[in-house]
Amino acid sequence: MTQSVESTATTVASRHPEAWWKTAVVYQVYIRSFADGNGDGIGDLTGLRSKLPYLADLGVDAVWINPWYPSPMADAGYDVADFRDIEPSYGTLAEGEAFIAEAHELGIRVILDIVPNHTSSEHRWFEAALRDEPGARDRYIFRPGRGPAGDEPPNDWQSAFGGPAWSRLDTGEWYLHLFAPAQPDLNWEHPEVRAEFEDILRFWFDKGVDGFRIDVAHGLAKDPALPDAGERLPGSQHTDPHPAWDQDAVHEVYRGWRAVANTYADRVFVAEAWVPGNDRLARYLRPDELHTAFQFDFLRAPWRSVSIRAVIDDALEQAATVGAPATWVLSNHDVPRTVTRYSRSQPDHLVETDWERARWALEEPNHELGRRRARAAALLQLALPGTAYIYQGEELGLEEVEDLPDEVRQDPTWFQTGFTDRGRDGCRVPIPWSNDAVPYGFSPFDAEEDTWLPQPGHWAPHTAEAQAGHPESFLTLYREALELRREFFDTPHAVEWLDTPRDVLAFTRGTVQCWVNTGAEPITLPEGLTVVLGSVADITGGVLPSDAAVWLSEPGAGESR
To answer: Rounded to whole angstroms, what are the CA distances from 349 to 301, 504, 512?
Structure first.
């Protein structure tokens, strides 16, 4: 398929109004695990292009693709060796351009992942630094060590994946890597670094890309003094200031990026910014900085109405203050899948430290309960004003694969914690498309290679093929919800809370109400309203069961589902 960037932009713009990103539903594609077109067990562009009709039928407005750049895969592509090309195991740059054009023809925008905090250790810049070419090390953060022999790290910073955040070269100098040693941190005080990334943005915008999700957007700038962090470990970056995270200097970078985006039409940035609270998040969303930022407090909230409402109120207050839409997310490639998260007792926050993860995993998951809650949470997410992101497989009701054999695990967290933190592989297992046995249509039926992470043997009922057309399936729920969202919730109407019992959330937006019962007992719904869509099939007699949600409208305002 051949089509110019200009004509595809016209095609996609015909479906979306100006500032399309303020109400969009975006589908996250973890490309290694989405669809394998050539049979090597790894997802690729051939597979992704073949599934574009599925995404169009699902009803999403855009796709966000995890890094598709050339990479040694020390961290599943987040160690980028070349920001202007495509990873060969995924395809070619020409295939990437064809994908963008084909997506646009179907009215689907394309958001890429950009990784500005670090490069791969095999990036040409870092290879030049290892050769100690003049000025090359200035693009990264190199420092002499401490101690009489310089054999101690420059400070006490720890890697987010475990272990020290510094590695020593044979020359005796140390370099900073807040993630894996194969991911050296860039020095964002260096003008060449800033100019390079602004040029990378232009490169992809010129190819028709509609926006970028910014990895570790709260990183980049460091306290120039590189002071010790003390008890402020990387895992506490969400609640306690750390000299490597959320530094004020990062905002100058994003003002430059916004100036680049403003020279194109309808481009968007979304920030992955783990910060202590919405007051800090709002700083990234000023009119001359980024357009949107993930509302991670929504993802981290336990299945309790009081907690969820507090998060929603805080997010909507911030949105009104800064003029940027709230960006709701229930799951992604870095956290336990929604079904599994809701399958166990609910802590006061997302399970994330080694000790909490181990304790939490001791509980036997109740996936039936988790799926029931996840369906209800989806209706809540899609009824809220703003942008919604869906992680691939959420629409199929997939659970975390927690029993992966140790020998197949690939997340650097597993290795850098001395095999104590199982990491994120369980939410990255290739998704099932068809057939009743592995690889469930993820790879061609005659594929000679196993999938890069093994799939469980009980996923046959959860394939897209098995769920298609089934009136009570996850996939049907998502398709109907996305269709109805455009009819009822793609509006400027604000959330108006209704009086409810303690364990219940309910609000009106325009002519439709959303009710969510997080409690253990059924509740009575208002009389005279029509069920538009329910997360369960047994919403009869005006009663909403426990762990369920429903959209209600005035009679005649919407078709009963």
So the answer is: 6, 19, 30
Task: For residue 124, give Cα distances in angstroms to 83, 118, 131, 257.
Answer: 11, 13, 11, 23
Residue 7: pLDDT above 80? no
Residue from 14, 54, 5 nearest 34 by CA? 54
Distances (CA, A) of 446 to 36, 73, 441, 465: 12, 26, 10, 19
Q: Which DSSP string do the residues of 112-180 spell out, in sequence order?
A: EEE--SB--TTSHHHHHHHTT-TTGGGGB-EEPPBSTTS-B-SS--B-TTSSBSEEE-TTS-EEE-SS-
Over residues 213-241, the pLDDT tens digits come to: 999 999 999 999 999 998 655 444 444 67
Nearest-angstrom CA–CA distance, 477 and 472:
7
What pLDDT, on a 0 to 100 scale, did the predictor assign at position 350? 58
pLDDT in tens, 450-488: 999 999 999 999 999 999 989 999 999 999 999 999 999
Instruction: Tell me what pLDDT residue 14 has.
Output: 39
Q: Is 28 helix (H, G, I), strand (E, B) or coil?
A: strand
Q: pLDDT digits over 48-80, tens only?
A: 999 999 999 999 999 999 999 999 999 999 999
What DSSP element (H or E) covers 26?
strand 25-29
Assess contact for 522 and 548: CB atoms under 8 A. Answer: no
Q: 79, 185, 272, 314: which one is catalytic? A: 272
Nearest to 485 by CA among 465, 514, 515: 514
| Rounded CA separation 521/488 (Å) | 28
Which one from 87, 102, 210, 215 is the annotated catalytic residue? Answer: 215
Residue type, 292: T
| CA 206/CA 4 separation, integer angstroms | 11
Give the E-state strand segments of 304-455 in sequence order: 327-329, 387-391
Can you read off the two tokens belonging to residue 24?
Answer: 């969009």
> How far, CA to CA in Å, does 224 sit from each of 150, 244, 252, 432, 524?
20, 9, 15, 47, 58
Residues for the chain: how many in total?
Answer: 561
d(CA 391, CA 335): 11
Residue 272 bears catalytic tag: yes
Residue with token string 């009570």: 472
Q: How does DSSP assign 470-514, residue by residue? A: -TTSHHHHHHHHHHHHHHHTSS-PPPEE----TTEEEEEETTEEE
Angle of the 250-261 helix axis to the 191-205 helix axis, nearest 10: 30
Each residue of 353-369: pLDDT tens digit? 554 555 566 778 999 99
Inter-CA distances, 365 with 115, 203, 360, 369, 412, Å: 34, 46, 10, 9, 25
